[in-house]
């Protein structure tokens, strides 16, 4: 996603880009709901949490994520937001009462050390400090959103949660997009780079990716599931090198080993 965003965000600004990917994702998700005959149910007391999930995670987090990638680079975007699991452990302890056992602390420490090694690989961009700040906000808000999803995961399936939260974010972003409709109307959607990028972001990164993430949160505790987020800087760095010509070093190799090791520790020694 970071690599595709870096390619298309030069043509379509972050907010408009997020709005378009959510529009595509909602069409795709509703088709899924019809095909699989999803039975809808809604508890009014969950409305506040659903709105928070949509605003915090699907709106603020994704906009700051794409803004940060725009201002820095795909590799930095993947690396900085990999702080998400650490924030998830804190929020899970605070909001869900999940215990901070030794396995969680060791695995997150290993992952953090791995991320630190990868961070030293490459920092660049037009406004890299502002980009890093945006990406930190993205990591914090995505972690909080994930823990909030966990709070309602027993009531709704992952597809329902994704549809509702994506719709909330789409509605929130619409007023901003309407004031800049020229950006939407003048984009060259038939150009393969633009059209295929939007389809990938909407269908794969949003519709499929969000549903799978929310489903994973239902099946595991929030703290442990967050560690799988750390495969992101590995893939982001490799694709940034392969597609965008960004550089990698031995620090990336060592950091990758630490991140994979942290996930193994979490799975192998989890209670």
TrEMBL record:
It is a multi-pass membrane protein. Pfam families: EamA. The chain crosses the membrane at residues 20-40, 47-64, 76-96, 103-123, 129-149, 161-181, 193-213, 225-244, 250-270. GO terms for cellular component: membrane. Keywords: Membrane, Transmembrane, Transmembrane helix. Residues 2-119, 130-266 form the EamA domain. Its main location: membrane. The keyword Disulfide bond does not apply. It is found in: Endomembrane system. The keyword Repeat does not apply. Belongs to the EamA transporter family. This is EamA domain-containing protein. It comes from Lentilactobacillus buchneri DSM 20057.
